[in-house]
């Protein structure tokens, strides 16, 4: 029998981590027929999506849900799941005719599962769903913190980070490292990354060459961008069709698209400022406007869609009528399809890494408006390091429980949107060139193709 290897994937709960994990799994099995992948899913809300993708060499195993009715913290959830993970993998390897277990690939927030891999005597690789520069930042800051050097929390200190060419201001750091209350999580997170045998990164060398050259003590495999290159909504419905039909009627590169990710939403004061900016700009727009979760919700609570009648209540009086000819306000957005549409000319984005990669791939310039997590770092990378984006803001931040740190004015938003749609030719050229590189890096001769081959060699050498 031809040698075969099984790789166990453990993504974090949430679609933002599941989708790139599945794209990576598909990339591996399409690249080498010796690989079999089992994805252990903790979040069964995506069951319909995962079931539609299952095949002989790509299987999904739904782990038991937490018995607690209240939503457990991520660390507690992962500890509860450890025995279930070990049992599921033991069941997989008990079949002597099945492919041999070669490695674990664990999400960047699931590094506690490395303990299970060690028990089973297989290597563990972290799947890092953010960029290379951010990975370098977190490893460097963790080393400083281990040495009790916490000057990076001082408001005026700009940091020299090996994965960045420019000094990084504290406003570009994630809350995880700035807030002392998060210190235990930050220490555990950094230690988890350093425990891995290697780190697979959803980025590509052509985009982050500076960061790639900065890694010396960690084995990295930048094999991105991992996204669906032929975007078709998995849940396409009449609403999606209506959005795409509207875009079909707009001139090429004329529409500014505003979308803030699966967790992005704003209070009514900020919504009114955005509305005023859009109206006064006179530009064509497509705005994904989501309803914030209740203020007493947990950290994991997600925005929902407004009813169409709610828009009249939260938007300025007459806004919808005055912009009816040039704009459209929607709820959830089929983002990749919109970015791929020829009418889309600019993207006001929270700078989540998936969204950043999609915008680069489809060659749509970004105006940055980061909200949380590592988005301030991504915005700094795009604007200051790569010179591929314009800013609406770089230092806007939504704190857990405390809310946003500022209210962005309509004038500031409008200025950013105008700069986006009137972007200078040099920046447009950089965006276009990087779009082309993001499409060729995974082809033969590209950097990601080369790293993927090396990664598969590493996996196959384990069996």
From TrEMBL:
Which keywords does UniProt give here? Answer: Glycosyltransferase, Membrane, Transferase, Transmembrane, Transmembrane helix
Q: Which CDD domains match?
A: GT1_Gtf-like
Positions of transmembrane segments: 122-141
Molecular functions (GO terms): UDP-glucosyltransferase activity
Stored InterPro entries:
UDP-glycosyltransf_plant (IPR050481), UDP_glucos_trans (IPR002213), UDP_glycos_trans_CS (IPR035595)
> Is-annotated flag, keyword Membrane?
yes
Q: Does the keyword tRNA-binding apply?
A: no
Taxonomically, which superkingdom?
Eukaryota
Output this protein's name.
Answer: Glycosyltransferase
């Amino acid at each position: 029998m031809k040698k075969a290897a099984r790789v166990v994937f453990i993504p974090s709960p949430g679609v933002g981590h599941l989708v790139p994990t599945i794209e990576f799994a598909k990339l591996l099995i399409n690249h080498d027929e010796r690989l079999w992948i089992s994805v252990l899913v903790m979040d069964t809300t995506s069951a319909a999506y995962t079931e539609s993708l299952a095949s002989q060499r790509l299987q999904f195993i739904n782990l038991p849900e937490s018995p607690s009715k209240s939503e457990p913290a991520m660390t507690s959830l992962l500890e509860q799941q450890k025995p279930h993970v070990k049992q599921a993998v033991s069941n997989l390897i008990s079949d002597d005719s099945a492919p041999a277990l070669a490695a674990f690939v664990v999400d960047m927030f699931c590094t506690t599962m490395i303990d299970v891999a060690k028990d089973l005597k297989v290597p563990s690789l972290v799947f890092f769903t953010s960029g290379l520069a951010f990975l370098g930042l977190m490893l460097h800051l963790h080393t400083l913190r281990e040495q009790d050097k916490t000057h990076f929390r001082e408001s005026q200190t700009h940091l020299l980070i090996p994965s960045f060419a420019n000094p990084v201001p504290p406003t570009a750091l994630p809350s995880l490292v700035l807030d002392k209350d998060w210190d235990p999580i930050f220490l555990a997170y950094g230690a988890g990354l350093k425990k891995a045998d290697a780190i697979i990164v959803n980025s590509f060398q052509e985009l982050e060459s500076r960061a790639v050259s900065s890694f010396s003590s960690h084995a990295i495999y930048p094999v991105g961008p991992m996204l669906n290159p032929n975007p078709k909504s998995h849940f396409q419905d009449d609403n999606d069709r209506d959005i795409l039909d509207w875009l079909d009627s707009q001139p090429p590169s004329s529409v500014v698209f505003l979308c803030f990710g699966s967790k992005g939403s704003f209070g009514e004061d900020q919504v009114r400022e955005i509305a005023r900016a859009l109206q006064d700009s006179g530009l064509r727009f497509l705005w994904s406007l989501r309803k914030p979760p209740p203020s007493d919700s947990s950290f994991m609570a997600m925005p929902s869609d407004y009813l169409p009648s709610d828009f009249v209540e939260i938007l300025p009086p007459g806004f919808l009528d005055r912009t009816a000819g040039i704009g459209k306000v929607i709820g959830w957005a089929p983002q990749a399809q919109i970015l791929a549409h020829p009418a889309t000319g600019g993207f006001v984005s929270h700078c989540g890494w998936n969204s950043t990669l999609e915008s680069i791939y489809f060659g749509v310039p970004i105006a940055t408006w980061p909200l949380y997590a590592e988005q301030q770092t991504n915005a700094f990378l795009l604007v200051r390091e790569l010179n591929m984006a314009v800013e609406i803001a770089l230092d806007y931040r939504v704190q857990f429980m405390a809310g946003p740190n500022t209210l962005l004015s309509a004038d500031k938003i409008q200025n950013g949107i105008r700069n986006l749609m009137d972007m200078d030719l040099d920046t447009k050229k950089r965006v276009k060139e990087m779009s082309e590189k993001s499409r060729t890096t995974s082809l033969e001769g590209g950097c990601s193709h080369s790293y993927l081959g090396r990664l598969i060699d590493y996996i196959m050498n384990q069996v």
